[in-house]
Amino acid sequence: MGQMWIVVYLLVACAHLSQQRSDPNSSTYLAAVVEYPPKYLTNSSETLRVNSDAYVRLINTAGRVVKADIIVFPEDGLTTVHLPEREEMEGWTTVIPSPSDNYIPCSGDTIQVSDTLRKISCAARDYEIYVVINIAEKAPCANVSCPRDKMFYYYNSNVVFDRTGKIIARYRKTNLFNEPFDVTAVPEIVTFDTDFGVKFGTFICFDILFREPPIILTRDHQVTDIVYTTAWFSEAPFLTAVQTQAGWSFAENVNLLASGYNRPDFGNAGSGIYLGRKGVGKAIMPAATHEELLIYEVRKIKDRTNIEPYHDDSKNEKAWPCYQGTKRIGDDLCVRSEVDTKSDDKLFLKHDNIEVFQTLSLKGNATETVCQNNFCCEFKVEITKLDSRTKYRLVVFNGIRHYSNVKARVRACGIIQCSNDSVSSCGSVNTSEVVFNNIEIAATFHDYKNNLIMPSTLSPDLLPLKQWTFNEHVHDDHVHVNMYLNNSINNVVTFGIYSRDFSNDANRISFYTATYFIVLFVTLFSRL
User: Fold this and answer.
1) Cα–Cα distance measured from residue 510 to residue 98, given in angstroms and rounded to the nearest whole number
2) Are 272 and 47 in contact (CB under 8 A)?
3) Which residue has better confidence, 170 or 290?
4) Which of 106, 455, 522, 527 is most solvent-facing, going by the fewest CB within 10 Å?
5) Residue of 439, 445, 449, 408 whose CA lies nearest to 252
6) How far, in Å, CA of 444 to CA of 374, rounded?
7) CA-CA distance, 323 to 34, in Å (whole number)?
8) Distance set, CA 154 to CA 66, 150, 187, 513 (Å)
């Protein structure tokens, strides 16, 4: 019997080895994203070496064994998030040639780049795969706008290599989250073309909640596919990682390849491949530290405006084999064999301050309208089974909230789980025997073109709920959103709508530009 399984495995593996790479006429392409737990060692050179070696191993698997077309790695996956103060940053960084240089770090010798960048370039060339990484960049200050105490600007940057190892895109993060980096004077809008006929856009982590660059890419440039690197800190009940990734992909109706930094005990986890209005291709939200390579055959989007009903085709997904050094957990989860997967592991979660929401305790069936600051949500709820251990509230928010040191306007409404009758207990994430026969939420958003409006659902495993419908009806300058269940469900943690209103962000570009000119003025004045 054991020999039979070996033969079956080899047949499956050989079938994948013979898979043809996608071309412009293909209806699909094969994508890989990595949930990766970076190792932090005693110094920058050792940290970068061990993590880049792991990247090469994964690029080998994705490119040579699976024949994937593109692989995406997480934000901070090479350096870790443990970056030093600016004065000690240089050893963690690299010069990144501009795509206009047509530079291949693997074979070039005219631009001095780090060993890490050269190594990844060689892996992309050797295994003939597009590779997306995130790395700390240093850009020499060679003009009068450089502050006197800096020799370099430091950026949190994505780098894209084509199948020859050439750098074809570089994006510098716009929306920083407590990071020791600089930002460009004007937010960058970065795209790249592939030999399989798909144009991608790219951005990083916290960017996903802002207009620049994500909404510019999807709505102004009509980009249909996004590569996204992230080290997200999950927040219940509306902004856990996969919940946000899936909601954003659905809202903009684009394919999203999201690679997450894995450190669950600090709140970092969550990767996936998302298919716009067709739902989730594959996603994980691990509670235990582990590495995983997610593979999915992504259907190309020909028309983003052609909204089709959600269809869950996960049963038709190919059963990709686990690769060397991993073991199978469940039906489709391959993890590093030395990883601890104890069932009592927990992912650390931040929590939104629900006490600033307008809330109403849910005791049973209800038809209610809840409002805050002229934003109202209509709720219709039918419950067929109650559970004394788990409570729920209807919640609505319309106002300015803080993401760390950044202010942003948010509108949100939904049904969220609470562990007891107090508002302060809301945002709990537990299994629940409460059975909802129906949930329906309706809300109207004015100036909708200046909004990101995402479905936001969550189950106790921190993955999105299934079996719901999200409809939008546009009238002049506003959109009416109606979201409801298709079938009875239990284990609801969150069922609602989360919206970012960008009207208060209109001066962000001018802020970056103003900062540039302030620095320029101070520098010139100091030299007089």
Assistant:
1) 25
2) no
3) 170
4) 527
5) 449
6) 11
7) 13
8) 35, 10, 15, 17
- Are the C-beta atoms of residues 99 and 169 closer than 8 Å to each other? yes
Is the omega angle on the peptide bond into residue 460 within 30 degrees of 0, that is, cis?
no
Active site residue 205: yes
Alpha-carbon gap, residue 37 to 268, rounded angstroms: 9
**CA angle at 135 for the pair 71 and 186, rounded to the nearest 5°:** 105
What 8-state DSSP symbol labels residue 486? S
Q: Return the C-alpha torsion angle 260, 153, 192, 97, nearest 10.
A: -120
d(CA 50, CA 320): 26
Given 67, 119, 173, 282, which residue is catalytic? 173
For 291, phi and psi rounded to 5 degrees?
-110, 140
Query: At 360, which amino acid appears?
Result: L
- CA dist., res. 313 & res. 331, Å (int): 15
The b-or-e profile of 76-113 (16+ CB within 10 A means b, else e) is: bbbbbbebeeeeebeebbbebbebeeebbbbebeeeeb
Q: Per the structure block, which two tokens stand in for 345? A: 């592991």
Q: Which of 119, 70, 114, 120 lies closest to 95, judged by CA?
A: 114
Integer Cα distance of 234 and 241 in angstroms: 5
Q: Per-residue pLDDT for 18 more than 50? A: no
Band the pLDDT of 147: cuts 50, 70, 90: low
pLDDT digits (tens, 9 = 90+) for 303-332: 877 655 444 444 444 544 454 445 544 444
Q: Which of 35, 67, 75, 292 is catalytic?
A: 75
Length of the chain: 528
Q: Which of 205, 322, 334, 413 is catalytic?
A: 205
Structure tokens at 379: 């709720």
Number of other residues whose CB lies within 10 A of the CB of residue 468: 17
pLDDT tens-digit series, residues 397-408: 999 999 988 999
The 10 Å Cβ neighbour count of residue 10 is 12
Mean pLDDT of 445-461: 96
pLDDT of residue 144: 58
Residues contacting residue 104 through CB under 8 Å, at least 6 positions apart: 121, 125, 164, 165, 166, 167
- Site of tokens 């934000």: 75
Name the nearest CA neighbour of 227 among 138, 297, 130: 130
Average pLDDT of span 222-233: 98
Q: For position 262, what pLDDT does the model report? A: 98
The answer, yes or no, to whether residue 165 has pLDDT greater than 60, is yes
368 is catalytic: no
Q: Is 188 a catalytic residue?
A: no
Name the token pair of 493. Answer: 């943690």
Q: Is the pLDDT of residue 153 over 80?
A: yes
In this predicted model, what pLDDT tens digit does every residue of 40-84 receive, in sequence order? Answer: 998 999 999 999 999 999 999 999 999 999 999 999 999 999 999
Percent of the chain with pLDDT over 70: 83
Return the DSSP state at 277.
G
**Is-contact 253 270, C-beta < 8 A?**
no
Low-confidence winner among 9-18, 125-134, 325-334 (lowest mean pLDDT): 9-18
